Amino acid sequence: MSATGIRLHAPAPGWSLDADIVVVGSGVAGLTAALRCSAAGLKTVVVTKARLDDGSTRWAQGGIAAALGEGDTPEQHQDDTLVAGAGLCDEEAVRILVTEGPDAVRRLIETGAHFDTGPKGTIELTREGGHHRRRIAHAGGDATGAEISRALVEAVRARGIPTVENALVLDLLTDADGRTAGVSLHVMGEGQHDGVGAVHAPAVVLATGGMGQVFSATTNPSVSTGDGVALALRAGAEVSDLEFVQFHPTVLFLGADAEGQQPLVSEAVRGEGAHLVDADGVRFMAGQHELAELAPRDIVAKGIMRRMQEQGAEHMYLDARHFGAEMWEKRFPTILAACRAHGIDPVTEPIPVAPAAHYASGGVRTDPHGRTTVPGLYACGEVACTGVHGANRLASNSLLEGLVYAERIAADIASRHAENALHARVPHPVAQPEIPTHPLLPPEARFAIQRVMTEGAGVLRSAASLTEAAARLARIHAEAAGALAEDGKTAEPGVDTWETTNLLCVARVLVAAAQRREETRGCHWREDHADRDDEAWRRHIVVRLNPDRTLAAHTTATPDFPPTRPSPQEK
């Protein structure tokens, strides 16, 4: 059953553009896809929610993982990835990532990205959690994402690829047969386009990033409100593994009531020898895992939370005073500046840290070519679930995944274009009812959703906490639906209400999947089911949205994803 009848309540589009492909998002995944498609002769349009360089990529501090060092191999990188993924990685997806990754990084360098190099001109490599070798390439010390973003933005502008900035994507447009025909979007502010419009294209690439803003405290920028996952769900696409939200272990603690984007203290700081300690200076990760502070992120986050519970503390500390001022200033200038801006000097004192929502390992389900279950709709980067990350992303695999799978999407679309299989499609008309069929949430509901998710579906989860979270989310939806049913009123269409409605959509799916998975695996930690249960749960939870906005969830029979079953026109 398709959910394509669901649309965000919005004015009818007042303007339109035509293209072969529209890319939604301007991080490493989106811009790489756009550059490759444009190079293949495709008329490409990039739509992004803020400015071109304002996505999650620019905030990536640590780097990009690939087997580039002497003695390192794709097989070793694959082994580390599979271990971190806790039995749920798709092995073929991981093999693609690690074997195609090194050349993809080299092509990124050819595009103009400059990585830090040593005296002999070779790329400097560091370690992060879960890696048994130094294989993380970095730039500007701890400004890797900013450098990658700079290079890709410059390349996009140099090619003259049309871009629509400050645009919130609303819904997928489809033709009468349910195939992709473009997107509707709302441009915020003045410019060539303003208000609600449409980009008509037979192929759409979602590269919208994460959904960290569903929690009160996150490392994600304010634009990360799950818009891509919500759009895909409304379009009838399947999402998977949404319960696996990675909480970064070391986020600068700004107080128990801190909300919104929090400063990240990169895992690379631990990779260079920083220690996690409690208030008494005790290294509590030693002995918990062979890699101690460099264990996979889920293990470190749990170790911090356990110590906090034991001691009744609000945070732990990251001690890197032994680095000295020179190393801090050269290797981690961004983190040093962020800490000092908040009154903490890492050169002379330990940094207070606590876990915060960081990365969605799940997302819109795709095949090895980035194709979703909706014909013509592709996804890559954090919005996608390629199967690479399993139950827990290995550090610095995210930039690489965006890079590798964006290239694969572009190759697939270019192949279809060469076969004359990319035809313009006329969007199936959707009536604009005077009274909306589905409610929009008021902006203030955003904070209620974030509190519900932080309290009930954060690092520590249980049947009781998830049941309460599901009930509270259901009440938020019911109140809006009740008001609509009683007097035909809903919140006014606008960026705040659309974002809040998207957040509720992804929150409901996340909680439903977390309730269903009665085990602890990777970054999904159930206090009432403390053990990993491979016999019952080494499989994926796949969710779709019904036309009445109820959820249809099922569990796969094996750890392998079923095919996305593209239509004959897509093959």
Q: Which regions contain 5 or more consecutive residues with pLDDT less than 50?
A: 566-571
For the largest beta-sheet, the strand count, sense and barrel status come to:
5 strands, parallel
CATH architecture of the largest domain: 3-Layer(bba) Sandwich
SSE-based structural type: alpha/beta
User: CATH H-level name of the largest domain... which superfamily?
Assistant: FAD/NAD(P)-binding domain
Share of helix, binned: 25-40%
Number of distinct beta strands: 23
Task: Let me know the average pLDDT.
Answer: 93
Largest beta sheet: strand ordering:
7-3-2-11-20
Computed over alpha carbons, the radius of gyration is 22 Å
Shape: globular
Total number of helical segments?
Answer: 14
Key phrases:
23 strands; 571 residues; Succ_DH/fumarate_Rdtase_cat_sf; single chain; alpha/beta; Methane Monooxygenase Hydroxylase, Chain G, domain 1; globular; five-stranded parallel β-sheet; FAD/NAD(P)-binding domain; 3 domains
Please describe what this structure looks like.
- 57% of the residues are buried.
- This protein has 3 domains: 15-244 and 361-418, FAD/NAD(P)-binding domain (3-Layer(bba) Sandwich); 251-355, Succinate dehydrogenase/fumarate reductase flavoprotein, catalytic domain (Flavocytochrome C3, Chain A, domain 1); 444-555, Fumarate reductase/succinate dehydrogenase flavoprotein-like, C-terminal domain (Methane Monooxygenase Hydroxylase, Chain G, domain 1), CATH 1.20.58.
- It starts with 15 loop residues before the first strand and ends in a 16-residue tail after the last strand.
- The strands form 6 sheets. A 5-stranded parallel sheet has the order 7-3-2-11-20, with helices on one face. It has a 5-stranded mixed sheet with strand order 21-19-13-22-23, covered by helices on one side.
- With 571 residues, it is of the alpha/beta class.
- It is built from 14 helices and 23 strands.
- The active site is at residue 297.
- It holds the Pfam family FAD_binding_2.
- Residues 560-571 have a biased composition (Pro residues).
- One of its GO terms (biological process) is 'de novo' NAD+ biosynthetic process from L-aspartate.
